[in-house]
Amino acid sequence: MDTTITPLGGDVYEIDTRMAGYSGITAGYLILSDRPCLVEPGTAGSAPVVRRALEDLGVGEKDLATVVVTHIHLDHAGGVGDIAEMYPDAEVVVHEKGARHLASPERLMRSARMVYGDRLDTLFGELKPTGADRIRAVDDTGVIDLGGGRRLESYHSPGHAKHHVGLLDSRTGDLYVGDAAGVYVPETKDVRPATPPPDFDLDSALDSLRRFRELGPQRLLFAHYGPVTEVEETLERSAEELRVWVDAVRDARDEGLDLDHAVAMVRDRTRERYVVLQEGTDPELTEKYELLSSAASNVAGIMHALDRHA
């Protein structure tokens, strides 16, 4: 079996989707049930990696029943169009606020290119359109049939993005949290916030975390990165980090700092909270998690939210 695949029990397999060539930065998950389901296909550049993993797990092009994304950011959904081409019988499930962007991704790609410039091609690649007849949109809740009485239940969980859903496996109690609980660093057990513009909203994000707790999951499966069994502690830490960052950015904003100076202040104030940023940590580990959840992106998202509410 390829090293990109890690069995997690309950017929669930973690797939390292190797975003931008990094290992351990983005995870997709295959639920190898009667109706196989892929959660989070990753970037367009990850599609060949995912296909090889599914082949190794015995899932052929006619076997995959469903592809589900927690939200349409390119590190999660950039490969949907490619995977839809590779698996022509698979239904694509997404929240209704993101569905049109999978069918017609031009606007999403323009916005992404404005943010990332030439780095877009290296980091994510191009999101290809998926036929509208292949897409099923869900609203506040939805159900994905996994066969044999097993199902994934989707729950709208905005805050990180307005088109975000969490996914609860009825058989295992696994909750696929996407980015709604932030970024988990398995090497150091850090939980870092993910608050990018333009959708971040603190109240919605905290409400989503409360909803996750009420679902009573047995395990959290992070897209960044991997399984976590300390459910209550991790969700509490996620909420705490959001509050700390918003308070820090609010202070910077009240001092009239521009974005660069606000980032410097917030980075200095929060650095000690994360082992991954401490001296002596593997520089590549620090680099890849700064790529995923950079201080600049987090501060910009919070600034945007504070300006909006003001």
TrEMBL record:
Q: Which UniProt keywords apply?
A: Hydrolase
What SMART domains does UniProt report for this protein, alphabetically?
A: Lactamase_B (SM00849)
| Pfam families assigned to the protein according to its UniProt record, in alphabetical order | Lactamase_B (PF00753)
Q: Which residues form the Metallo-beta-lactamase domain?
A: 25-224
This entry's Gene Ontology molecular function terms read:
hydrolase activity
The superkingdom listed in its UniProt entry is Bacteria
* Name of the featured protein: Glyoxylase-like metal-dependent hydrolase (Beta-lactamase superfamily II)
Q: Which organism is it from?
A: Actinomadura viridis
